[in-house]
Amino acid sequence: MNEKVTLYAKVGKALIIARQDEADPYEAVEKIIDWTTFILSVVEAEELARPEDFDYLDLMNNHYSWVRQYSKKLLETFEFKAASNNAGKSLSEALKLLKELNEQKGGKIPADAPTAFVKPRWQEYVFKSDGSIDRHYYEFCALASLRDALKNGDIWIESSLQFRNFSDYLLPLPEWLKLREAKKVPLPIETDFVAYMSERTVLLHDKLWKLHSLIKNGQLPKVTLENGEFHLGKMIKEEEPEALEKLKKLVYGLLPRVRITDLLVEMDELTGFSRHFTHQQTGQTAPDKLALLAAILADGLNLDLDKMADASAGLSYRQLAWVADWHIRGETYRKALAELVNFQHKLPFAANFGQGKSSSSDGQRFPVGGVKEAGNKINLKYGFEPGIMFYTHSSDQYAPYYIQVISTTARQAPFMINGLLYHESELEIETHHTDTHGYTDQIFGAASLLGFKFQPRIQDIGDKRLYCIGTASSYPAISDLIGDKISSKLIGENWEELLRLFTSIKKGTVTASLILGKLAAYPRQHRLAQALRELGRLEKTLFTIEWIKDEALQHGTQGTLNKGESRNSLARTLFYHRLGEVRERNYQDQLNRASGLTLLSAAIVTWNTLYLEKAVEALRQRGEDLSAEKLKHLSPLGWHHINLTGDYIWKLKQGFSLDNLRPLRTRSGD
After folding, report:
1. Tn3 transposase DDE domain: from which residue to which, for each copy (predicted)?
2. Predicted pLDDT of residue 375
C-alpha cells in the first residue's frame, strides 16, 4: 500500500506540473512509470484497497484462533457475576454459555442464547442472514463487552480486588448500621438529609438571588452576559513590590552555600526523619545512616545506585542496594516526609508564606525512558510520548506533603481527594485548589461531604452552567445561565448510600481515587453516581457564584496554585540525571523515585525557611525595611546556593541544632 501511495503521489505531482506547463499528461506519467506497469499497478491497488464502508470488525475473524489461546482459560478461571441491570445479566449468562460450550469442546450457539448485551455495532456480525448466531463473533462481542462491563460495574468478580461488586468496596453493612444508629458517622456534615438539604437549599437560593440582583442592578461591572454565557473582565495581576527582585537577591545572597549532602544530614539531625526508614521485617532503623541518606538522594536526583556509590567516597553499591531493598518503600517515605513538613510548618517564618490551612495539587509529567511500550496511551497534551505523572499536593507554605504516581491518561480529580485524606503530616487543610482540569461535578460533591472547601481555578467560566432547586424563572436576570434543575429527590433516595460511601473513604476501607474513579466510569444510570453528581452541581453552583462575585477569591486561588506550580521548577532541576527520564518500569520503583524527589524538595524548602528567617533578622539589624507585606513575596524554593553536582561527600554532624546553625554569608556573592 505504501508503495502505491508513493507511486501515485509522484504521478499526481507530474500531472500537476504538466497542466501548469500545458504539456502532454500521458508523457508526464510515462516519465514516472511505463504505461503497462501503470495499468497493472492500478489493478493491484484495487485488490489492496478496502471498501469505503470498511469496518475493522471484518478482520477479526482472521484472529479467532489467537484470541482462543486465552479466552478459554479466562472463562475457566473466573466466575463473572452480574449487577442488577439487564445488560449485565445477559452478558453474565452469555459468558456461562461460552464456558459450557468450551467444556463440551464445540457446539453452535443456540437460538435462545442471551443476546441483550449485543449492541447495534455488533449485530450484523453476530447475527447471520439466516437468523443463526455466529459463534466466533458472539465470543468476540462477549469479550469486548466484558472489558467495558468490568470497568463500569455491570460485571464483577468476587475474588478480585479491582473488579469487586461495588458494595464490597464499602464498609460492611452491619458495621455501617451500627455507626449510624450510634450517631458516630465520621463526616463533618449534618447527616440528617432533611436538615442538610434544607440548609443547602436556602443557601443556594440566597446566592442565586444575590447574583441576580447584582447583575440586574449593574453592580458587577466586570461581569457581562452574552448569548447565555458569562464573560468576566480580565483579572488584574496583583502588583509585586518594585524592589522585590532586589529583595530576593539580597536575602538569598546571605544564605550559606551548602552541599546537598550536608543539607540532608542537617535536616535529619533537626527532624530525625531517617528514623522512619525501618527494616520491613524487623522494624529496626537503618544501621548505616549515611548509606540510607545516599540511597534517598539517589532517588531524589534520579541517579542509579551504582553511580551514587561511585560518586560517594566510602560507600559501596552493595551497601546502598541493601538499605534500598530493606528500608526504603512508600510507607517509610510518607512518614519521613511528614516529619519535614511538620517541622517547616512550625517554624515562625513559614507564616509569612501562608497559614498551612490551604493547599493545591498539580501533576508534573516526566518521560518514561527505555522501551516505548506506553506509546499506545494517548494524552491530548503529550501525544504518544510515554510518560507518567507525579501528582503532588503542596501547602500554601510551599511544602509538598503528599505524592502519587499516576498515568498521564488518568483523570487527576479522584486522586486529589487521596492527598487531603491520607497525608500523614499535622497540616489541617481546610481549603484546596486545583486548576481547571482537576475537578468534576462529583469531586465537588465529594469534597463537600468530606468537609473540605474545594476552590478550583475556573478558566472557561463562560461554558459553565448554574443549577437551581426550583425554577430558573425565579432569577430572571440569570435565567439563561441556569441549566438543569438539581434533583433533591435523587439525592435523598441515595443519601444513606452516599453517607456509607464517604464513611468508607474516610475510614480507609477503600481509597478515594479507586472508588470515585469507578463511579466516574459507571454508566449514567448508576444511581449513586447520579446522586453524587447532583450534589456536586449544587456545590459547584455555590462556588461559581462566589468566583464570579469575588475577585479576591480568584487572586487567592491563583496565588496558591502558583506556589504549587513553582515547585515544579525545583523538582525538574533536582530530577536531572538520566535526562530526567523515569526508567523504572515497576510502579513501586517509580513511586520511590517520586517520593525521593518529594522528600528532597521538602528538605530544601525546610532548610531555606530556616535560613531565610535568619537572613531577614540580620538584614533588619542593618536597618532594612522588611515588612510582612514584602516577606510574603519570598519563597523557600531557591536552589542556586545549593551544590547539587560533583562528588557526594557524606559526614554526620552530631549535635547539630537550631542553636548552632551555619553562619550567614556577609554579603551577596561571598
Report:
1. 262-648
2. 42
What is the domain count for the chain? 3
Q: Determine the Cα–Cα distance for residues 414 and 519; give it in Å rounded to an integer.
A: 10
Q: What is the DSSP letter of 368?
A: B
Separation between Cα atoms, residue 327 and residue 280, nearest integer Å: 6
Among the ranges given (138-152, 260-274, 284-298, 329-343), the one the predictor scored with the smallest mean pLDDT: 138-152
Shared domain check, 552 and 496:
yes
Q: Does residue 595 sit within a domain? A: no
Cβ proximity of 379 and 409 under 8 Å: yes
State the pLDDT at residue 237: 63
What's the whole-number average pLDDT of the chain? 89
Residue 175 belongs to a domain: no
Q: What is the pLDDT of residue 569?
A: 93
The confidence score (pLDDT) of residue 376 equals: 45
Of 295, 298, 279, 299, the C-alpha closest to 287 is 279
- Domain of 402 in residue numbering reads as 194-238+354-569
Based on the fold, state whether residues 507 and 524 are members of the same structural domain. Answer: yes
Beta-sheet strands, E only, within 324-441: 358-367, 387-395, 400-407, 431-433
409 and 558 housed in the same domain: yes
Please tell me whether residues 41 and 74 are part of one structural domain.
no
269 located within any domain: no
Q: Convert the pLDDT of each residue in 489-500 to its tens digit.
A: 999 999 999 999
- DSSP 3-state of 126: helix
- For residue 58, which amino acid is it? D
